[in-house]
Design a protein that fits this description.
Elements (H helix, E strand, L loop, with lengths): L7 E10 L2 E11 L4 E5 L6 H9 L6 E6 L2 E2 L5 H6 L2 E3 L3 H5 L4 H10 L4 H14 L15 H14 L4 E5 L7 H18 L2 E5 L3 H7 L2 E6 L2 E6 L1 H6 L1 H8 L3
Parallel strand pairs: 3-8, 3-9, 6-7, 7-8
Antiparallel strand pairs: 1-2, 1-4, 4-5, 9-10
The structure holds adenosine-5'-triphosphate.
The site of adenosine-5'-triphosphate has 11 residues, from β2 and α1.
Amino acid sequence: MSAPAPLLSATTLARAFGGVVAVDAVSFSLAAGETLAVIGPNGAGKSTLFALIAGQLRPDRGQVRLEGRDVTRLPPHRRARLGLGRTFQAPRVFGALGLGEGVHLAASLCLPAARARARARMLIARLGLEALTDRPVPALAYGDLRRLDLALALATSPRVLLLDEPVAGMAPAERAQLMTLVRAIAAEENLGVLFTEHDMDVVFGHAGRVLVLDHGRVIADGPPDAVRRDPVVRQRYLGTP
Ligand SMILES: Nc1ncnc2c1ncn2[C@@H]1O[C@H](COP(=O)(O)OP(=O)(O)OP(=O)(O)O)[C@@H](O)[C@H]1O
C-alpha cells in the first residue's frame, strides 16, 4: 500500500510581480500533526506563499495539493471547503456582529447546522471567550480579537490551519499562551499547522519544523535546532549570537 498523501503540499511554486520573483520554485509538504513555521527576512516571500496556498493568488508555475487533490486553480472558498482553515481578519468581516454569532456563522459556512452550533460553542469555551459571546466584534480588546481570529480559522473543522502572524502585537506571555493552545488543539484534532511569525522565541519555542525563505527560495527546511545552527540561515537571517 502506498503512503497516504501529505495533508498539504507545494511543488515548485513560483510567482513574480513584474520583475520581482516573490516565490521561486518553493516545494514542501505538511503532514497531519505537524506544526511548520515559515520564516525569513522582510520581502522573503512569506505572505505571497501564504496567498498562493490559500488561493488569493495564482502561481505562475507549480502546484498546491490538499490531501493529494490539486487545488492550484481553486478559489479560496473551495479550498476552505476541502479543509483549509485560515484567519479571516475578523474585525473587517464581521462589522457589528457579536463574537458568538460570528464564530457560528463561520462554522455554518462548511458544517451542517447542529454541528456548526456545537463546534462554535466548543471553540468559544476552548479559547476562553465565553464571557465575550455577546460582545460586538469591534468592541473586543486586541488579544481577544486574536483569539477570535483563531476560533474563526478553526470554525470550519479544517485539516490544515494557515496562520499568518497569529500572535503579532500581543504581549510575550499572551503569545506563548495562545501558541500553546494552538498546539494543543492541533494535536487533539490531528491538524497540520502552517504559520509565519517574526518573533523567533515563538518560532523556535512552538514549531516542530521550520522552513526558511530568502529571496523567494527555500534555504532551509528541518527541525528547529538544525535550522537555528544552519550557517546559511545564520548568515542570511538569524545573525550570529
Ligand atoms: N502585489 C504585489 N505587487 C508587487 N510586488 C509585490 C506584491 N506582493 C509582494 N511583492 C514583492 O514580492 C516580494 C515578497 O513579498 P512578501 O510580502 O511575500 O514577503 P514577506 O516575506 O511576506 O515580507 P514581510 O515579512 O515584510 O511581510 C517583495 O519584494 C515584495 O515587494
